[in-house]
Amino acid sequence: MAIEIKVPQAGESVTEADLAAWLKEDGDYINEGDLVCELETDKANMELPADGEGILRIKVEEGETVAVGSVIAVLEEGEKPKDAPKKEEAASEPAIPSVGTQSPASEKIVQHASPAAGKILAEKSIDLSSIKGTGKDGRVTKEDALNAQSAKPAKAAAPVASAPSMVSGSREITTEKMSRLRKTIAKKLTEAKNSTAMLTTFNEVDMKPLMDMRKKYQDQFVKKHGVKLGFMSLFTKACTIAMKNHPLVNSQIEGDNMLIPSYVDMGIAVSSKKGLVVPVVRNAEAMELHEIEKEIGRLATKARDGKITIDDMSGGTFTITNGGVFGSMLSTPIINIPQSAILGMHNIVQRPWVVDGEIKIRPIMYIALSYDHRIIDGKDSVGFLKTVKELLEDPQKMILDL
Predict the structure, then answer these.
(1) What is the mean pLDDT of the chain?
(2) Which of these, 15, 210, 304, 333, could form a disulfide with 344 (CB 3.0-4.6 Å)?
(3) Catalytic residue among 26, 127, 219, 373, which?
């Protein structure tokens, strides 16, 4: 009896996925637990393991969009090849050698790519051995191939009818297909701009007191908690305290109602290879600084390793994004709907600053709060940002909850 391989449920809001790549060939003998394909949903990529064993018969081609619950392949009954690994061996050893491992027979470097990735690399005339794979056990994925630098010039655009140019530079255009995640991000950001009355208010923070405190207690903090004290946990703590007096900043609109939670599920924007993702630190208002740091570190690692899940990113009530890590001086972050506000951090720059009537050079950061003016008015938005500023400039007050 054939075993059907179906697209699994991947969250309440996810109804379909793109079949990014087959990790096995049609006709291969599959052991239970073998990874057979890679699916790309709106929020994350996932590799699908087989629920049984048998001969793989592929029903859907790579690149096609498939609905949740649909059959994409079957495992037919058939005789296992004599040289096929046993189930126990398949579970204990990687089915695919890692990039850079040596084959005992040939003593040469072995590199592997998914069928889709191999096809793309061939079209681009790129040597497989020159690509570092990000998939399981170093496999070169379809996305790796799409992002690889093409050695084959793309078709040049038609020349514009004008005077001849004396400049002899490259005019090639590289075309890359947008990933489902990138398309979803584009859709959500456009929806946020079109469906909210978004406004941004700004303030500036003297970071010297915060930086002095970190420098003074960093070694003791690491020794006791096993993690460094960063700016993100301090900003998170400042926001959760400020929300006690300005709860609408942590709220959202649902129909004709305002939802005002008693908790803060803090979204932390993280840049990953697949785009910007926002994992959520749940009940951040009840956490100590070291607990926030450890949770942010755990989620950021999952995001950068491509292992972030939909559950990790769902249900946030407020978001912090830090463009300063890329050198941004000032920006107007876009609300992560259905949330009603987002805080933007920026780079720290030495600027002239008046202290007790004297001009001194201090490390200053601009901060921005974008908010939905339908539910948050100027009093709450400006008051919230002012409170965050005051807490960061007097961190002892924040730590002591005064």
Answers:
(1) 83
(2) 333
(3) 373
Instruction: Record the pTM.
Output: 0.66
Tell me if residue 246 is catalytic.
no
- Distance, in Å, from the CA atom of 132 to the CA atom of 145, rounded to the nearest integer, reads 10
- The answer to whether residue 290 is catalytic is no
**pLDDT over 90 for what percent of the chain?**
42
Q: What are phi and psi of 315, to 5 degrees?
A: 85, 15
The whole-angstrom separation of Cα 143 and Cα 63 is: 12
DSSP per residue, 184-242: HHHHHHHHHHHHS-EEEEEEEEE-HHHHHHHHHHHHHHHHHHSS---HHHHHHHHHHHH
pLDDT band at 163 (very low <50, low <70, confident <90, very high): low
DSSP symbols for 120-179: HHHHHT--GGG----SGGGPBPHHHHHHSPPSSPPPPPPPPSSSPP-----------PPP
Catalytic one of 127, 212, 305, 377: 377
Domains of the chain as residue ranges with CATH: 1-94 (2.40.50.100), 96-151 (4.10.320.10), 181-399 (3.30.559.10)
Number of Cβ within 10 Å of residue 161's Cβ equals 5
Average of per-residue pLDDT across 259-270: 94
Q: What is the pLDDT of residues 205-259, one digit of tens each?
A: 999 999 999 999 999 999 999 999 999 999 999 999 999 999 999 999 998 999 9
Mapped onto helix, strand or coil, the DSSP state of residue 73 is strand
